Amino acid sequence: MRICSLIALLLTASTLTACGIGGPTADERQGTGAGSVRTTEGGSDADVVIADHEPPSGLSTVTQADGAVDAATSYALAQATWSADTYADQYQRMIDLAAGDLRDALSSQRPEADQIEGIREYRQTSRAKLVAVDGRAVEGSAGSVVVVLETYAGANGEIQPVPRHVIYRATVKRIDGTWRVTAFDTIGGG
After folding, report:
1. Pick from 26, 104, 101: which is nearest to 69 by CA?
2. Helices 87-97 & 66-80, crossing angle to 10 degrees?
């Protein structure tokens, strides 16, 4: 079982590398690490550089897609990181980051007290960390961002020992100068 999981993880990492998707850390998302999301000098083709590798020379920090990537990443982490004590706040964070039909759907399906009590009773949790993000499909004021998370579910005080790697696609749009998520889909993993 562990060998199969390791092989699956290596295949996923190889696929992400082949697709040019890297795994930025918090410093790298701020553009301070070697694995920052960067674009060519002309600002046209975004290039995601894998963490712990030096970027090719002549690359500068992405500015156009940064807000879109931040919105998509924040949304993905909000929906995948919660406990009974934080569930309502994380759900509200998703609403705040959303727009259009997605925001309407989230607003009309807010968690109720009995749902949160069920989460508390069974000590359910979900933890996630960012593995990779790719904002190259963002042009102008719209596009899509691919976000890969490593997630750990928990219940009854136990956290699953093997993470799930989930790939999401967030459709994003700049509305009144602020990037919002207008659709959010699971496209792989799980």
Report:
1. 26
2. 150
- Per-residue HEC secondary structure of the chain comes to CHHHHHHHHHHHHHHHHHHCCECCCHHHHCCCCCCCEEEECCCCCEEECCCCCCCCCCEEECCCCHHHHHHHHHHHHHHHCECCCCHHHHHHHHHHHECHHHHHHHHHCCCCHHHHHHHHHCCCEEEEEEEEEEEEEEECCEEEEEEEEEEEEEECCEECCCCEEEEEEEEEEEECCEEEEEEEEEEEEC
Q: What angle do CA 6, 49, 34 make, to 5 degrees?
A: 105
Confidence of residue 187 (pLDDT cuts 50, 70, 90): very high
CATH 3.10.450.230 for domain 2-189: yes
Looking up tokens 């553009």 gives 31
pLDDT higher than 70, residue 144: yes
Where residue 27 falls among pLDDT bands split at 50, 70, 90?
very low
8 A C-beta contact, residue 147 and residue 73: yes
- How far apart are alpha carbons 46 and 68 in whole angstroms? 13
- Contact, 165 vs 12, CB < 8 A? yes
In this prediction, what percent of the chain has a pLDDT beyond 70?
A: 66
Half-sphere exposure of 39 (CA within 13 A, CB side): 18
pTM of the full structure: 0.69
